[in-house]
Amino acid sequence: MGERTRQVLPSVLSVLLALAVCWLTIALTRDADTATRAYLQMLWGGVGNWPAFLEGGNANAVLRPLGEAAMKAALLTLTGLSVAVAFKVGLFNIGAQGQMIWGALAAALVGAHVSLPAVLHVPLALLAAAAAGAVWSSIAGVLKLKRGVHEVISTIMLNWVAVSLVDNWLVIGPLRAVAEGHQSSITGTAEILSTAQLPRLLGDSSRLNLGFPLALVAALAVWVWLARTRSGYETRAVGLTPEAARAAGIPTLWRAGGAMALAGALAGLAGAVLVLGTEGRYPGTLGAPYGFDGIAIALIGNNHPLGAAVSAAVFGILRAGGTRMQLLGVHKSFPELIQGFALLFVAGRMVWLALLDRRRSRQAAVEVPRA
Amino acid sequence: MLEVLHSLLFSTLDAAPALVFATLGAMLSERAGVVSVGVEGMMRTGAFCAAVAALAMPTPLAVLVGMVAGAGLAAVHGFLSIRWRSDQVVSGMALNLVAMAGGTFLLESLFGPNGTPAITQLSRWNVPTLAHVPLLGALVGHAAPTYLALLLPVLFHVLLTRTPLGLRLRAVGDKPHAVATLGLSVSGLRWAAVLGGGLMAGLGGAVLSTAVLDRFEQHTPAGLGFMALAAMVFGRWTPLGAFAAALFFAFGNALRIGLASSAPWLLELVPQGFLLALPYLLTLLVLALQGQRGHAPAALGTPYEQESR
Amino acid sequence: MSLEDASLDIVPGELLAVVGENGAGKSSLMNVLYGLYHPDAGTFLMDGKPVRLKSPRDAIARGIGMVHQHFMLVPTLTVAENVVLGREPTRRGLLDLDRACDEVAATAKRFGFQLDPRARVDTLTVGSQQKVEIVKALHRGAQVLILDEPTAVLTPQESDELAQVMRGLVQQGRTVVLISHKLKEVLGVADRVAVMRRGRTVAEVRASETTVSALASLMVGEGSRGAALTGVPVTSGADTALTGAVAPDAGTVSTGPIVLDAKDLRAKGDNGRPALQGVSLTVHAGEIVGIAGVDGNGQRELAEVLTGLRVLEGGAGTLLGGPLAGLTPAKAKARGVGHVPEDRLARAVVKAMTVEENVALGRHRQPPFARGPWVDFKGRRERTNQLLATYDVRPPDPTVALQALSGGNQQKVVVARELDADPKLLVVVQPTRGLDIGAVAQVHARLREAKARGAGVVMVSLDLEEVLALSDRVYVLYEGRVTGHFPRKDLDERELGRRMLGAEPDHG
Questions:
Q1: Based on CB atoms within 10 Å of each CB, which residue in A149, B216, C88, C445 is the most buried?
Q2: Nearest CB partner across the interface for A292, out of B97, B102, B110
Q3: How far apart are CA B181 and CA A238, in angstroms?
């Protein structure tokens, strides 16, 4: 079994096992038939109902679901990358949620209150979001590097600080949109200008927007950076053995701090993609714990940038399809359960490897007499 | 003024137990060297199972069911992190996600989005003659968990500092290899601490749905488990410190809620969001000032491997 | 580390020494005796009856105690708490700390140790911590006491004291098993010596009937000994140590240009206490300067100051044409300082990275390892292949993870990398710790080679034999001060030992 197989196989098996366990859950609470049909709905909800489309159906039957899946995948890719990048310097970024909140808020403010042509407005809003996320994650970075405060604790605290300050104060207080006319029940910030919207790529029927290719480019860029550049090499060395990196003359504090800032920037971008791509403003809350999902995505992707993108695509599809499961009375949060179980099984990576090794040695034992 | 204090004290004591139990549970596990970020998920599991069990049995028994459920989740954590030496933070976060999504799924498919049906709350200890005595009266009228929350920190303190088991637990969190060479079982001690922590977290959750509320709600415990981690760190991994921190946070919460109803003008000056953020900001501040390394158990988060020394 | 086919007889009331090279299986065998490891095959008889030790608990119950090479003490607990851990005295279910202290004090007194039962272990010296370990075993009623490399961290004088303790225990009818690779020391104290090689016990001899050189050849084994000796002189071997004299190859005093001139260096240790309290030294090009001392007397900090890893708090110096103050690892590297640190896996390599990535470490910004901001994969591969061949690293595969290599081969990679940079000053700390004899010889040869090429070499070693074998000059450090400075011709082991304990020079 090659090294690469050992890296990938546990993740794949974990996702499959999670799918099987969750199928059983529905089969037990409902019945097997419902479970199977729910899974089919989830698939069609995620990648589109191709059978119906090929029999001459509406193109929207395919485009709309794909757009939803891509949109979810973009958010998951970015938060997953955020967690994965921090992992590369040995830091566990549980704070992607908080960083994403500030990113979303920054994007919403720049999107609504700055007027610029679209070619400048979109990049500026993205930049603001990345900067806001980076600042927030850097607080944890500085606390860790200067004061030795464990980042798991500090990022958890910072998440709650962000939620409290933004959701429970800023967007219901000073930054709340001024109601126009008779619309008095607005929650969240003002609507962004049309110049700040991420362009849709497949027309109006699908919500697929620039955010998805942006996320893929980010994944690719992070991978190239880590694998092929000097500073990426230094970053990995710092994460694996910080003392050896320091002894080798690598500026370890800058590399670790830089990776943590980049992690925050990526989570901030996720916030921007949510606001500029679909929501149009900072809603009352982010609506879903994308930052925590990022932990699952990164770990299921084995902390590899491209692995994170792949696992984000898989769960993007499942989660876009989750809404379709409601037709059968299965709650739309069901894919999150699958994701949770997949992470749990990935956490047992050692168990998988032990099982795989035992299998291999049994095979070897069988092969010996023949040889 | 006295009345305000009285009601603040009363609501603090009423709300604190869940946080106190969860904090003690997290601390127990971490003192033995096993990271406990999964406490939120264990609380949720305990809260859900207690609420469901209370539909079919007396509420005090249902609380026990909640405790066992918390320990059940902790057992998964133990299996992954003790038996298989997995990353303890990963395992804990995975349990949080499973409990989060699983709780929602089960709630919605069994009962619908508004939470479980109402159950009989734990009964309160009413002493009418005392109830109106200023301050002292704030001590009565609570359910059993409140009194347990005043007692358990002391018991935990005695356990950790004055019993052989406590000595061994502290040793295993600081230097597991030393414990192993004396013929004691590192994994046995860690299992005990993790399961004990699960029982406590489950109790914390069960209290939420049987004493604070009368059902399991969609978002229970709404981050209380993470606040327990803050209280544990704030209390420097000691039972009495953790108790003081948990009480302090609960007091802050009571103060915030009290202000919202009695002095809304004050909340115009100090936004509610600030008050919500305060416990976390304070924890961050304390950590920033003292650094964390001095107080955390030395082997915290490090899987025990016999051969690596 | 493994055991092949090891047999050992232990007779009551004797002092048995088990000797062998690093990796010969001494510690593994003892861990089996102590129930920590479980043998795949074989039997264990006690008083003629077969016994199965499932855990240290069984071993303790049968009167076996062990003092591990790395102390097994909980630093945050007190002496008494450490000693009674696992068999705590209780009163009404609660821990009875007073009784624990009394009991521990009594045990310590019975065996002549001075220990404060209420002191926290992390405040004690290394020597005292070792006593706590011994008391811990005796307190459990150990009849057989196993000591694993107990003198590795002690001064010669402390070692003498330990020898008396061991003899005393034997006189009281207890059995002591001493594991060591220091042959001279072993012969001075043991009744019987068992020799291990590659996981087997190859000989058992009476101490009075053998010599250091006979033991050494048993340890090394004829075949590998020949191979080791054809390359370069074997230094950890017996001859130099036995005579206390100096190998004949040296005595030269380098008059090359000064590469390091340091005055009154001061620095703090990791614990915040002063570790260097005014160290002055000079190093010339083309010489090996040994730094001797008992572990923890500032040697490590000195090496760290010279390589930019530790902040200099006071004093000044010139290092390769630049000031010593404000030195960083990057600046040190740029000036031509090479570094072979003590803790290889923590400081010198990234074990999860490949061999070629480790060869690049530290020079990864320059050709042939980089081109602009990009990693130069081709150049890195070529240079790595070259070095692996030159230094005989096995397997010579640049793409395997470094952790897949043996300790000796890992060290060869580190030495290859540092010497490939052609350093003007080479700082090496414990360069051969944990290596087998062949690798030791190679590393020593490379250090001499570096010296011959004109590098100044600062070598910190806790192994006095190594210091004596390689150094042209020796500085002795004690509590962060230089307590002795000897050119090669004046080197004397006993005198070095006295200085390592802080004795002032009096006679000679």
A1: B216
A2: B97
A3: 34
